[in-house]
Amino acid sequence: MNDTAAPLPATDRTRIRRVAENARYDRATLHAIIDAAYLCHVAFADDKGTHNIPTACWREGEHLYIHGSNGGRMVKWLLQGAQACVTITHLDGLVLARSAFNHSMNYRSAMVYGRFEPVADKHAALAALMDHIAVGRQAEIRAGNDKEFAATTVLRISLDEAACKVRSGAPVDDAEDMLHPVWAGVLPLVQVRGAPVADTRNTAPVPSYVAAWAAQPA
Amino acid sequence: MNDTAAPLPATDRTRIRRVAENARYDRATLHAIIDAAYLCHVAFADDKGTHNIPTACWREGEHLYIHGSNGGRMVKWLLQGAQACVTITHLDGLVLARSAFNHSMNYRSAMVYGRFEPVADKHAALAALMDHIAVGRQAEIRAGNDKEFAATTVLRISLDEAACKVRSGAPVDDAEDMLHPVWAGVLPLVQVRGAPVADTRNTAPVPSYVAAWAAQPA
């Protein structure tokens, strides 16, 4: 369970069959995809059917963390042990091939299967979320009070049943299509950081993590 | 069902309770969120549990379309009538509030509930996908042959049970926190188009939709 250098075992659910050469089962790839994300999509079923909820996420060690209001549907059902599938997808570009059916996308995706468990130390976990957003900010903000913490549930899911799929690079066409006279290549898509927008009532100086924001790739 | 000017009815599944002021039930918002996306996350359950699969999507009228290999798990179960929840989320920024628990994100998300149905006219549907990627390209590529079309299933889901949630703008803090001495504002995230990368073996001239790519916001 804790051999983080070993590849993730492929289970009935995580063994990738479609374009299997794009499958990645190493934890370094899984960690990088999660760490590059601010949100994930959490799928689970309740008495009304299957749901798919976007929510903030972060990673600590071999767990993916989320949080939510105690009264929300997602928190309620995940706490009751509903099986979840958490997916993160970064889209990196459109792949324009010479033939229609070889068109593709470049992407990095991660899927995590399992059941969430409640996190007892909510203070430490939500401080880690703040660090994921902006290192140093946790010490500057008005900290959560007992009432706010009491209304919030923090949950985590083990990364032990997970798989990634990554595609990058040029189109792959069939040999007999290589002379078809159409432009082939990649149209990149990139998530970038825009210039920070201060609140109109802000009077505080710009902290270093805000000043540095737009200079870095997201 | 076809009154596209009327708001979407809120059902047990689509009525938004958390931060309900961010809910949107108008079809114009729903269409805009889908049309701005190249991919969605499709949640459904099979005999192995709940899954959450990223896949290309596009819209025609009041349906969201996807496609996939006939042999894949997703196509197989959706064709059997598995209930699905399709979610699209565009992340627009991190919202830095003065207090920990008022931090948020700016985003545009759409959720669609229902069951997919097979699309008989795969040629027309996949031409619409190509138009979503690059208008004009459909006439230039090596078209799909009978074998390729036969191996692919196109599915669509009605937009009749759907809801959107949109947050934009500045942080919203409690009145008593407004003087807390910390920077407050938004750190924007933007999906942008990078410079096209021609395949190393490309010999075709650059079409207008490729030339125009990097000049437009994604």
Automatic annotation (TrEMBL), chains A, B:
Pfam families, alphabetized: Pyridox_ox_2 (PF12900)
Q: Which InterPro entries match?
A: Pyridox_Oxase-rel, Split_barrel_FMN-bd
> Which species is the source of this protein?
Acidovorax kalamii
Can you name this protein? Answer: Flavin-nucleotide-binding protein
